[in-house]
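User: Please fill in residues for this 436-position structure.
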């Protein structure tokens, strides 16, 4: 009964798989690049940097201010003149109106505006480059998740093949029992073997679903989305280690971002040093003043007209030590340089380790491929001898396990080789997607 239930579950599982669509790696990558939240946030940050990168924010444009005011007062006044005359008014009103426009343009600020302009340009470029890094990292994660799904499906295929061999062995045991050349013990043992592999298949099916959920999260699609993948591996011949290392030093995303940070730090030093220089502003404006009074010397007064001027400002003491600020900025730049050197050293070490592993796995795959051929011949021979009564079901089971193990080792070698390839390409900054 238990075997029947397991077989029903397996059949339903196969029917479900047959109805699922095939998900290619290219589709997974494009879906992830379109939907991933980190990419969308990075794109918004680029727009923010573009909006901030203006001549006005850099300080090149003049500042125009308008002012205005109206005052109405009621007062009691008593005026005494030298002539002895007096003037008293009670409840006298006074109206005054002032309108003005002032234009200020900074002609010189210690070259700060030029440093800010260059810094804003670099920050915009850095934000655009950061998107490429985010996309590169996401593609690396998607590829790693995708090959894990392939690895698990290969394991599933291996176990399904073992189940087919178990079923054939069980049928032989049942046939031998009917002919009187076998025992019920052999039938029970082959049944247990079939049950063990069937349970392993169910457990592996659950692992596949979990790996698909992980990949779905990277693509930002429904967690319940189910798909199939091709279990064939695409062999890729990588360049030599020296070439890969040179590529990594030249175009690794972390190093390139640190280059931007270093350039920005240099410009921030220039901005800090600008406070050591004077500031020169040109001023222009137009003022209109009108007042009217019921008491006083003047009944009304009106003035209007343009004004021009130049102002000079130099801070003798700003309340902080500018030289220390500049020194701190220079130390920050030095830290960036040290970080670059550390990243380069790490990349060289990782490239050497991964590439050595990649080469060793290539040789190991050739060895396991030969072992698969031997194991397949061994199981064919063991099955035939068991049919003839010259071998036990234990020998057949050992042959099945040996084939399962060697194929699993071959699949594992392929997976590790692909993982090493992905890591090497990621470190080298090799584009792994089409940037349309």
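Assistant: Residues filled in for all 436 positions:
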């Amino acid at each position: 009964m238990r075997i029947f239930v397991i077989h029903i579950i397996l059949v339903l599982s196969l029917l479900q798989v047959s109805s699922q669509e095939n998900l290619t790696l290219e589709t997974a990558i494009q879906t992830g690049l379109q939907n991933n939240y980190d990419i969308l946030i990075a794109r918004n940050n680029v727009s923010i940097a573009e909006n901030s990168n203006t001549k006005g924010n850099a300080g090149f444009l003049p500042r125009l201010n308008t002012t205005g005011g109206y005052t109405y007062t009621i007062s009691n006044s008593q005026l005494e003149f030298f002539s002895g005359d007096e003037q008293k008014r009670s409840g006298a009103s006074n109206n005054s109106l002032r309108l003005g426009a002032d234009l200020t343009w900074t002609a010189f600020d210690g070259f700060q505006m030029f440093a800010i302009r260059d810094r804003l340009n670099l920050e915009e470029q850095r934000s655009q480059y950061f998107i490429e890094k985010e996309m590169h990292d996401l593609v690396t994660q998607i590829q790693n998740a995708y090959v894990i799904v392939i690895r698990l499906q290969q394991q599933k295929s291996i176990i399904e093949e073992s189940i087919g061999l178990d079923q054939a062995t069980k049928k032989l045991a049942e046939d031998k029992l009917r002919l009187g050349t076998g025992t019920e013990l052999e039938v029970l043992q082959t049944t247990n073997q079939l049950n063990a592999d069937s349970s392993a298949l169910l457990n592996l099916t659950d692992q596949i679903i979990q790996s698909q959920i992980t990949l779905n999260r990277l693509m930002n699609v429904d967690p319940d989305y189910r798909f199939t993948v091709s279990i064939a591996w695409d062999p890729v011949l990588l360049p030599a280690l020296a070439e890969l290392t040179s590529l990594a030093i030249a175009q690794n995303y972390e190093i390139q971002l640190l280059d931007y940070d270093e350039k920005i730090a240099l410009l921030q030093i220039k901005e800090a040093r600008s406070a050591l220089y004077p500031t020169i502003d040109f001023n222009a404006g137009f003022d209109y003043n009108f007042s009217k009074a019921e008491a006083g010397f003047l009944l009304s007064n009106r003035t209007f007209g343009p004004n021009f001027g130049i102002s000079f400002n130099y801070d003798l003491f700003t309340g902080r030590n500018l030289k220390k600020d500049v020194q701190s900025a220079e130390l920050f730049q030095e830290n960036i340089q040290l970080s670059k050197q550390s990243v380069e050293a790490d990349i060289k070490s990782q490239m050497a380790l991964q590439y050595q592993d990649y080469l060793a796995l290539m040789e190991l795959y050739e060895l396991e491929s030969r072992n698969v051929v031997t194991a397949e011949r061994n199981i064919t021979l063991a099955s035939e001898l068991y049919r003839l009564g010259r071998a036990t079901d234990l020998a057949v089971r050992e042959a099945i396990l040996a084939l399962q193990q060697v194929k699993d080792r071959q699949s594992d070698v392929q997976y590790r080789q692909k993982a090493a390839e992905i890591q090497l390409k990621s470190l080298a900054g090799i584009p792994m997607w089409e940037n349309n």
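For context: The domain at 60-108+280-313 is CATH 2.20.200 (Outer membrane efflux proteins (OEP)).
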